[in-house]
Amino acid sequence: MKPEEKARQKIDQLLLAAGWQVQDHKDLNLGASLGVAVREFPVSTGYADYMLFVDRKAAGVIEAKPAGTTLTSAEHQSEKYLCSLPPGLPCFQNPLPFAYESTGVETFFRDLKDPSASSRRLFAFHTPETLCAWASDAASLRGRLQRLPPLITDGLRDCQVEAISKLEASLGGCDFDKTCSGVFPRVDNMIPGCTFEKLFQEVFHISLGDLVVSQTK
Fold it and tell me: What is the pTM of this model?
């Protein structure tokens, strides 16, 4: 078996584990599942290794590479397929919003709706439900975080204002991934099963519900 065939075998397994149905193009049946990953899907510039369909509409592509490949070098290929849809193909948007590059061992992901779209490493493929929700949103999470309304500071202590402001700044900036991957594991060590509610209660010493109420009055 060739290295790229081994990679595709592992990618198939990862997709199945994430809730996708994997099909060959000749067996295409977009109604078989909410999420369908179609191998070797024809586009105007060639064949996408995988075309991802959610609720019968194209949402993204996966570019498969042999193990050991520097995945950032494959970004131009996946991006080319995002912009090469056949005429009349149902899709969430054109170009498509989601690009993956994967060896089956390592996987990178980009959301082209991000203000500055850049690849980030994943441990698993997103579920069809997640991509469906993201594709239906006009802006990505990063985009929404950069457009947060001004913080209403009434009733907040100076230390709370500083903590919330700095967290919002880091979440809305280029270090979004570093902030999430750095903050939440550390907080989870102190607060098992950490949620945003617990984060605000234990770190900022304020109820998230009270904060939301204060910001919407």
Answer: 0.72
